[in-house]
Design a protein that fits this description.
Helix content is 0%, strand content 50%. By secondary structure, the chain is mostly beta strands. The protein starts with 7 loop residues before the first strand and ends in a 10-residue tail after the last strand.
Length: 111
């Protein structure tokens, strides 16, 4: 309802859910990063709000990498006025993602 979306981990028996992202953003398309440790790569777009606090649009999506064991997040790809979405990070460090034009003023919707 508030226009945000987070990423969570669920235990194998579905008894425990732990959010690993939070904040005024829509986070999506998580993928395990190949290599050492528990790392997840995902895209994240900030949620814009009007004076009443209602969601009004999204900023350009960036690519983030979270190291779950260290609780560290870093931005690994960002371009002004371009959405970077659906990332995949290979063991050798190669990053794949989709680039698309960012639509300024795009409204936040249910889907």
């Amino acid at each position: 309802k508030d226009g945000t979306a987070s990423i969570a981990l669920m235990s194998a028996d579905a008894t425990e859910i732990v959010e690993i992202t939070e904040g005024e953003s829509q986070d999506g398309a998580p993928s395990w990063a190949m290599g050492d440790g528990r790392r997840v790569v995902y895209h994240s777009a900030g949620v814009g709000r009007d004076a009443a606090g209602r969601p009004t649009g999204l900023g350009p999506a960036e690519i983030h990498l979270i190291d779950i064991d260290r609780a560290e997040v870093q931005t690994i790809a960002s371009e002004p006025s371009i959405d970077l979405i659906s990332p995949r990070l290979l063991e050798d460090g190669t990053l794949y993602y989709i680039r698309r034009p960012w639509l300024a003023g795009q409204r936040v919707g249910f889907w």
